[in-house]
Structures are given as structure tokens and as C-alpha cells.
Design brief:
Blueprint (H helix, E strand, L loop, with lengths): L7 E12 L6 E12 L3 E5 L6 H8 L7 E6 L4 H6 L3 E4 L11 H10 L7 H7 L15 H13 L5 E5 L7 H16 L3 E6 L2 H7 L2 E6 L2 E7 H6 L3 E7 L5 H7 L7 E3 L2 E6 L2 H10 L3 E8 L2 H9 L38
Parallel strand pairs: 3-7, 3-8, 5-6, 6-7
Antiparallel strand pairs: 1-2, 1-4, 8-9, 10-12, 10-13, 11-12
Helix pairs in contact: 3-4, 3-5, 4-5
The structure holds adenosine-5'-triphosphate.
Length: 338
């Protein structure tokens, strides 16, 4: 790995990308500002169509931003990628079905001026056991391991993974992240796109969430996953109705009556609990945090709040402010090599 030079793995300022023209223009990436330091593990989250792949394609030099500046490891994306400093595990394409796993890695290795031994790449990607298997017989998860082995060949400083565990079962997913963890411990910068907040929470240090081409949340994993509503429920004792008390406290969410209990949804469940207990309004209180799925749905909802332009990294606690294969080569159709 090249550990010298720029401390910044990725730097984007005002990056835009669009498809189509006129009234049919799709603003896939609509002003992304992002800085990722070397050694960070960043999860890029967002619902379908949020702009993650379009952004990663620009980072990989496959496309050029319509406007804005983008540097990778202090260089243009194309220079960084052609120098073998960026590896990618993409969702589809780039594999020849008639080759074995080992033959594929050997063939791609031959295209690089410098690379680690083929067997080392296979081992590090956890693909030694499938080295003699034909690509066509590999499961989706095994093909991802092969793409991972290819991505490791040049000892890249930056690894980009676009939904790397799509199609993997629970065990394969766990094993994949264990091998990826080992790569992170070598000091590699890892940026991965995922739909699963749980996957981000388990593996990343930082979450960057895109919505409609913009970064709307950028913060440490703990902070982002703590965001979102909580639920407080209890048995009501008060003379006044729970709705009246909620209105006094500025709780605008609906109060639900269920199975003899009253349930409030609010971000400040602790404050509400203090009021209810100190005024003898309810007993047997229980507080439940939103599940990660709920948090993801809240953050990615079309009507989630957005604030003004981002001036630095936005954080989850800023109420979701707006701001915001393989290989070292361009993705190619299934059946052709990069
Ligand atoms: P997913 O999670 O489904 O992979 P994503 O966050 O990666 O989604 P993108 O694939 O970047 O989203 O797509 C962003 C938007 O740009 C979508 O509305 C998509 O339809 C559109 N888009 C992407 N590529 C093209 C293209 N080549 N031509 C026209 N529109 C495109």
C-alpha cells in the first residue's frame, strides 16, 4: 500500500451528476460535499435511487462529474484507479463464466504491472476453497469473494464496495465482513454502499446517508443509529387525558392506547418519563428505542426534514440537514474481463 502522500482518501466538493436532458433530466447526484480520511470505514446508505452508485462510479473514474471537484487519494479518480490505488467490489459484471476462480485471478493479475501473489489474494478474500471452481458454478456470494480477491491484487489504499453482500446468506455475509475487517486492520480505507443500517452499524465507523442525490446525514455510527424516535409506554393514572398532557409537552405524534397501556412516540422519552412519574400520571413505564430498520426508514423518508446547505460534515443530531468485479477497471458486461 502506498501510505505516503495525501492524508485524504476522498474529497468531493459540490459534485453533481445528471442523466438525460430537458424535462427528463435526472439529477442523480445533486451537490455532494464529502471528505473521507485515510483509514476510515464509511458506510454509504440510501434508499433505491438515492445516488450511491452514481457517486461511486465517479469516484472510480467511470464517469466524470458534470460539475464540482472530486479527488481520490489526492489525485484525479482516473489516475488513482489506473495506478492500482483503488480496488472495487461491484454488484455485477466483470467475470468470465468459463474460467475457474483461480484462472480469473491469475488473468487479471497478469494485467497489472505489480500485484500480490494470486494465492495470497485468494486466501485473503477467503476464496482458496473455491479456487478450482468454475465461475459459472459459483454462488452469488462466492462470486463476490472472487471480486474481492481481484480487488485486493494491487494492495489498494482505498476499497470501494457497492452492496458487496447482496445475495449472500447470513453466514456468508458474516464471513465476508470478517475478512473485510482484517483488511481494515491493515489500514485500508473502506467505503461501502449498503441498504442495511445493521450492516453499517456492525462494520462502519461513520455513516453517510444519501437522499435524492444529496448527503442528508453524516456522522459517527453511534450517533446516527441513536437518532430517531423512541416509544414510551405505561399504565395511565392521571385525571387528565394522555392527549392533553402530550399537547402540553409539545409531543405532536399520536398517542396510542393499546392493551390497557398508553404509548407516546417522542425523541425525549427521558423528559416525558420524568414528568409522568413526578406528577403521578402513569406507572410501569417502559422505553423502547426505534429499531435500526425504523431509523433507516425515518432517515430515508421523502418527507424527512432537510436543512440548509452543509458547511461541514453534517451530523445525525442536526435533524438530518441537507448538505448532502472488481477491480481497478471500468465495470464491463457479464462475461467480459475488466
Ligand atoms: P440502488 O440502491 O437501487 O442501487 P443508488 O442509490 O445506487 O440505488 P443510482 O443507481 O445512483 O442510485 O441512481 C440514482 C438515480 O439516477 C436513479 O433515479 C436512477 O434511475 C438514475 N440513473 C442512474 N443511472 C442512470 C442512467 N445511466 N441513465 C438514466 N438515469 C440513471
Amino acid at each position: 500500500m502506498n501510505t505516503a502522500a495525501s492524508p485524504t482518501a476522498l474529497h468531493a466538493t459540490g459534485v453533481h451528476q445528471h442523466f438525460g436532458t430537458g424535462s427528463r433530466t435526472v439529477h442523480a447526484v445533486a451537490g455532494v460535499d464529502l471528505e473521507i480520511q485515510r483509514g476510515e470505514i464509511v458506510a454509504l446508505l440510501g434508499a433505491n435511487g438515492a445516488g450511491k452508485t452514481t457517486f461511486l462510479d465517479m469516484v472510480l473514474g467511470f464517469t466524470t462529474p458534470a460539475s464540482g471537484t472530486l479527488t481520490v487519494l489526492g489525485e484525479s479518480p482516473k489516475t488513482a484507479v489506473s495506478g492500482g490505488r483503488v480496488g472495487a467490489v461491484l454488484q455485477t459484471g466483470g467475470l468470465l463464466h468459463d474460467l475457474t476462480v483461480r484462472e480469473t485471478v491469475a488473468m487479471v493479475a497478469a494485467c497489472h504491472a505489480s500485484h500480490i501473489p494470486v494465492d495470497a489474494a485468494l486466501e485473503r478474500a477467503g476464496a482458496t476453497g473455491i479456487a478450482r471452481r468454475r465461475v459459472r458454478k459459483c454462488s452469488g456470494g462466492e462470486q463476490q469473494r472472487l471480486r474481492f480477491a481481484l480487488a485486493l491484487l494491487t494492495e489498494p489504499d482505498l476499497l470501494l464496495l457497492d452492496e458487496p453482500t447482496a445475495g449472500m446468506d447470513v453466514r456468508a455475509r458474516k464471513e465476508f465482513w470478517e475478512t473485510m475487517q482484517a483488511e481494515a486492520e491493515r489500514g485500508r480505507t473502506i467505503v461501502f454502499a449498503t441498504h442495511f443500517l445493521q450492516e453499517a452499524a456492525d462494520f462502519a465507523d461513520r455513516i453517510v446517508l444519501m437522499r435524492a442525490g444529496r448527503i442528508v446525514v453524516d456522522g459517527p455510527v453511534d450517533e446516527v443509529t441513536r437518532a430517531g424516535h423512541r416509544t414510551l409506554s405505561g399504565v395511565w393514572d392521571g385525571a387528565r387525558s394522555p392527549e392533553e398532557v402530550a399537547a402540553d409537552l409539545g409531543i405532536t405524534e399520536a398517542v396510542v392506547h393499546q392493551s390497557g397501556r398508553v404509548r407516546f412516540t417522542t425523541e425525549d422519552t427521558d423528559g416525558l418519563a420524568r414528568v409522568l412519574l413526578s406528577q403521578g400520571l402513569a406507572h410501569e413505564l417502559s422505553i423502547t428505542a426505534a429499531s435500526l430498520d425504523d431509523v433507516f426508514l425515518d432517515l430515508t423518508a421523502d418527507d424527512a426534514p432537510e436543512a440548509g446547505p452543509q458547511t461541514g460534515p453534517a451530523t445525525a443530531s442536526q435533524a438530518a440537514p441537507e448538505a448532502a468485479g472488481t477491480s481497478t477497471a471500468r465495470p464491463t458486461p457479464e462475461g467480459s474481463l475488466p
